[in-house]
Every structure is written in structure tokens, then in C-alpha cells.
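Blackboard transcription, Thursday session:
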Amino acid sequence: MQQVPAIIQWMQNSDIGTGIRESVWTFPLVETTHVLALAISVGVLIWFDLRLLGWGMKHQPISQIHRQIMPYAVFGFIVMFVTGVLLFWSEAEKCYLSGFFRAKVLFLFLAAINAIIFEFKTKKTIEQWDKYPIPPVKARLAGWMSIISWAAVIIAGRATAYNLF
Amino acid sequence: MHFLLPIFKWADTSWMGETIRASRFYFPIIETFHLLALTLLFGAILMLNLRLCGLMMKNLPVQQVAKDLSPWLLWSLAIILVSGLMLFSSEAMKCYASVPFQVKMVFLFTAIAFHFTIYRSVTKSEREPRRWFGVIVAVVSVVLWLGVGLGGRGIGFL
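(Written on the board underneath:)
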């Protein structure tokens, strides 16, 4: 076994980590909640991204879709994040050593940076292109970045459990 | 012997099932596509249901929202069904013995039947559905699709 940092070892061996890992029901329940929250969060977020690309919901102003979707996306994200931390806690060593898990964290950061840039920069001029069926390049780019990074998060997340490499 | 057993046995020994089983990479890869399409489908269903409940895009008729979402919904469903059949064929005998799989199939067939009958007629109708009726239809739809997801996740655990 490779060496892991003390904090990872501590998480792995803590009561919470061991409790979830060795439980009959807790791990599957937390995992199932994680996946369902993902389907809700990313599932609706993708529709905002598709709107940004000009591929779906073209009849709806972008700002309106944004306002209506975000509460569900954020709610789903919070559930996903909390259950995700618990899952990590229970398999801290495995996750830490997994190349897929590291890739997943990387893409999560990418998704976050993309969201921050959109919220604080790109969105400033939204008044001008709100009703365009196909918004300007910078908005479409944000849509692509979001779709790609979230798809990568899902792919890498699923692969973490299989430990193929 | 259950009357469906021959179908499971046939799937289990089929060329596709054996091919997928032969590699340790095929199953995870196919499952990933299954999961990505599931996210898309569930998102589309959720959006339309939120509209039915009057919680989103109230300025557009239900019919219009359904029309926008429909191609995505059908394509993602097609990908889910095809990838699902592939996954099934690779572990058909495990599925045969799996209670979550049975639960999933009951929910799946009910969800599809509901979707292409009552749900379709409500969301394709020129007339806006009554609020309470829209809410009931939306709740039934979400519960049925959630059941499919829960059962599906359960196959891997039990």
C-alpha cells in the first residue's frame, strides 16, 4: 500500500469512515442519494447549458431559465456535496490513491471556475443577449465548459468505483 | 421454472453478453453512457414536471415546453434502453435472481407506459391542464422514474 497523508489515514480509520464503510445500509443509501442528487442537479443544469449553446429552450430568455433552474441545481449540488464528502470519508485511502478520483476533483474545480467566471463576468452583459436564440461565443463557451466538466466528473466518478487502473 | 427464465438464459449466452463479459472495460464504459443519458433524461423529465406544477417557465404553455424537451427526452431514453439491454445481457442471470432488478423493471415498464399515454396526452394537449391535475401527473411521473433509478442502483448493491 502506498503512503497516504495522515489526515487521509485518520479519515479512513475514524468512527464515521469505518461506520459508513462497514455498514449494510448506510453506504448504499448515501451512494444512492449521491447519484439521485446528481441526476437532479446536473440534470437541470444541463438544460441551462443547452440554452446557452442555443440548442434547447430557445423560446425562453436566458436570465429567466437561470433564475428558475438555479434553486434546484444548487439544492441538488448541496445534497451531492454532503453525501460525496461522506462517501470520500468512508473510502478516503482508496479515493486518495485513485487517479480517477483525482481527475474528478480536478474537473469539479474546472466546473467551479467556469461557474464563477460566468456569474461574475460573462453575465454582466446578459441584458444585451438575453433573448438571442443563440448567445455570444463567451456564453456558449461557458455552456460547453460546464457540459464537458460535469460529464467528466460523472465519468471519473463512476470509474473511481471500478478501480480499473 | 419461471416463464421468463428462457429469455434471461438466452441473453446470458448471447454474443453480446459474452463479448461484454469478456472485457473488464466494456461494462464500466457502457454503464457510464447509461448514467450520462440517465442524467439527461431525468433532468428533462424534472423540468417538464416542474412546469406542470407551475414552478417554472410559467410564461410558456406546457405544450411548448414539452415540444422543446421532447427530442432530448426520446434520444436519451433510446440510449438508456440500448445501453441498459447491453448491460443486462452481460449479467442476465444475476438480474434474474435480483429483487432490485425486478423492482426496477416493474417501475420501468409502468413509467414508460404512463409516459406515452396519460403523460403524453397531458403535455401534448393544446389546452393547459388544470393545476391540480398537472401536479398529480408530475408527481406520479417523478415517483415512477425515481423508482427506476433506485431499483437500478440497488442491483449493484444487493
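Lecturer's comment: Chain B touches chain A through 34 residues (CB under 8 Å).
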